[in-house]
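Q: I'm writing up a methods section and want to include an example of the input and output format. Could you take the sequence below and give the corresponding predicted structure tokens, formatted cleanly so I can copy it straight into the document?
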Amino acid sequence: MIWTAWRQQRSVAVAMSVVAIAFLGYLLYSGFHQQALWTQYLARPCRGDLNTPVRYQTYCSGLLDTVQNSGHFNRFIVNVGIILGPLFGSILGVSSVTREVEQRTTRLVWTQSGTRSQWLASKYLVNIAIIVTIFGPMFLMLGWWNRAAHYGARIAPSSFPIAGFLLLLYSIVAFTAVVTLGLFIRRAGWTFAVGLIFAGLVIFGMEFGVRPLLVSPTFVVVSSSEITQGSTSGFYASGGAPSNSWGRGGGYAPVGTTVTPSTQSLDAYSTKFYGCLNTPRGHEKTGYTYCSNRLNLEYVGIFVPDSEFWRLQFEEGSIYLGIAILLSATSYLRVRRMLA
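A: Here is the clean output for your methods example:
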């Protein structure tokens, strides 16, 4: 059964591999190109535009424009990488299971020596192997590209899906969702659409609803002398949140706060502070200092450190894996009770 399942899927697998190789080739080109420009910009004499000698300022401004223009398609690259996961998984689910159920070729398959459960197991085994083969190199390459192109801190929401192994799980969740839905809907077109929407909702809900709850942010008092400095790995803040952290906002809190303040607390104290700034005394040149001292407040930044990256990847990945296992179990129960 495994050999039969592979023969049915090999043309789809080859087509997806061609697309993946083309995408990986562009990632390689884009990554090396942007990495070279960043290295040049962050080295002397520009040094990331930090304390650049006056005679080089025009040159460094032009180089910065070149660096920024080289990343014009970066957001598009990230979006393509994220979309390919659920898209490939959905296509494999439709072509391997839903199409057979729709065309009723299962009537013949299920009367052969293998059982329905064995038939479905072969589909899972072959297609998940295809997904791992395609997306294993892809998530490794995207993680490298994120660093080379200085796209963003790996724990930040914009980079988090591509900096780890979540793309692999996006595809597996989409595949198991389409397989399960196909056994109920029995129409390839509708199953593909509903499955893709389901996977998108899961990913969207995880990013905006679940991920912020999986980590406990910490805080730092933001210095009035906060600056941004260039380094060989990008930029980092001095006097604020650590480099490569996930900024979760900020606000005013009482001086000497030792526990990470809640959003409600920050909003309440920030409202008081800005209310003070809107007074005649607050509009004076020393208004900021006056309001800070009068209310005994200081500005703090809320962040999640880079050290939480892999823990967050494994926790979120475990949830995706749990969803895939639940969908797989549902499909096994369904296939055993279906009429051919």
